[in-house]
Amino acid sequence: MVDREFSIHVVGVAYLNADGSNRLFAVRTCRPGDPIELRPEPKHPLDEHAIAVVDQRGEQLGYVPADRAPWIGSKMRTDPVTAIFQEETRGGAAIRVRIGEGAPTLPPILPEEVERDDWDAVDPEGPEFGA
Fold this sequence. Notes:
Layout: E1 4-10, H1 23-29, E2 35-40, E3 51-54, E4 60-63, H2 69-78, E5 81-89, E6 92-99
Antiparallel strand pairs: 1-6, 2-3, 2-5, 3-4, 5-6
Pfam families: HIRAN
GO molecular function: hydrolase activity, acting on acid anhydrides, in phosphorus-containing anhydrides; nucleic acid binding; zinc ion binding
Keywords: Hydrolase, Metal-binding
């Protein structure tokens, strides 16, 4: 068993759940590090490999992408697989998944680049340094 950790984008967030609950609202109530359950849905009518992404309150946020679900599902049958909420993304969410022992860890938050306008730049030749 090889320990692996990675982030994936949750798909289907824009859809309503079968009970009418709003997935995007559920995403917006999650906080980074909240536990996430991955629930295989082998009887899903469109994809036998479907894996639902469910928050700690039991509300579905969406699905693991179809191209990753078969591989993650196979790992779930043989290895420990855990997930946490990573962040809300534009129109969706990202989760952090760990295959192997231990809990997933959030990736470091990188500082956003500070945009500077011309008026914000200091000119060492400018009047504030002049005689």
